[in-house]
Predict the 3D structure of the following.
Amino acid sequence: MRFRTSFVFVAVTAVLSTVLVGPSAHAGTFPAWGTVPSPNRGQLANAQLGVSVVAPNDAWAVGEYNPGLPPTVTGRRTLTEHWDGAKWRIVRSPNASFAGVDATFLKGVDAVAANDVWAVGFGEDFGSLRSATLTLHWDGTSWTKVPSPNPAGHGLPNDLYAVKAISPTQVFAVGDFGFPGDALILQWNGSSWARVANHCGTGLRGIDALSTDDAWAVGSGTTCHFNGRTWSVVPSPKPRPAYGEIAYSLLDVRALAPDDVWAAGTRTIEQGEHLFTLPLVEHWNGITWTATYSVPGQALDGIDALSANDVYAVGTDGAYPMVAHFDGSGWTLVPSPQQGGELQALDTTPGASVLWAVGSTYAGGGKTLVEQAPSATQGTVVGNTTVSGATVTWIGRVNGSTEADVFGNYFAAGLVAGRYTFIASNPGCDPAVAKVMVVAGQTIAQNLDVSCT
């Protein structure tokens, strides 16, 4: 659970305004992010929590939905969606089946090939807090439930949160079991799942691998490495009491090379009676883990890297889905479509610099959210108005408005490609007007100099 307060949102917004420093910092630097339509099931909340891209015309997103209608038992059910290069479609998937199960969640997905995809999660009994691991396999035709171990027994929690498919005969799934939540690692050998002994301590939330003998798993303040024989904790940064930090929670990890590994998550801060979170990124250079705290946003859920100086992380700024970028020197906010919600996972198309992020919006109690960069249909406009808090309005293929930050900077992302009229205004000032051609996948710079006497 993340604790968020209005105080944190104001503070973080102020920080973000210092990294969005004008059009020259963005135009031509980032590909434009845009939303891609995705379906929903049932009448209530939907969410996508994991994504894996096999090819430009083959990607999977997994998560959960709430059917919300009798006679179906109200509670979450598995949600799997497939991208065929043109459209996201829902694909039927199994659910956990044990006495008393109230909900089933899918938390992670990874693919070896188009006909060899794994999704993991768990089923839960809300009354007893009992849960059981869930592993699903896609063989190119359908999803099948595959038996998996529950080391805590059938009366305690057994949860899976992430999966890494290295080969058809080596797949790792990670999570936690029992109370207070010990690290759980399962391994698929091509015919069955088995629990792997480990020294990782607390529960795990993310996993990635470079090879069969070089893998990383991360969790609640834990970074754990697999050398082909054993899993062992590697020392990593810990909470700093002087800053009110009481916990670090790493939620995702991405390995580029043995000396270039990235992990992202949150740090929980105690301030009086309140708890809130801020983002956290850690980097492994082959010798040690180093933490970075000056990252935009309030929480990071996913991370991926195209190269050592081209790294993306996704999460939320407290109100909107958020994308952050590392260029080799520091982290900055990337303009992305503004609708209430959170991005939960991130993956890159193999062999191409195309990023896919999935999550959920707050609309209608929770709807699926998919974003892509560079967008095939939408573009972004950034600029400066010279006036703090100026209103920027656009009229064209879609209409909308936003407010410039304290430095006069603004951005409008997720605009359908085409011609637009941009207007910047402020009470008592002469407005600025400009014609802008929005190009799919591109970030365009357009200053709007509001004249105030």
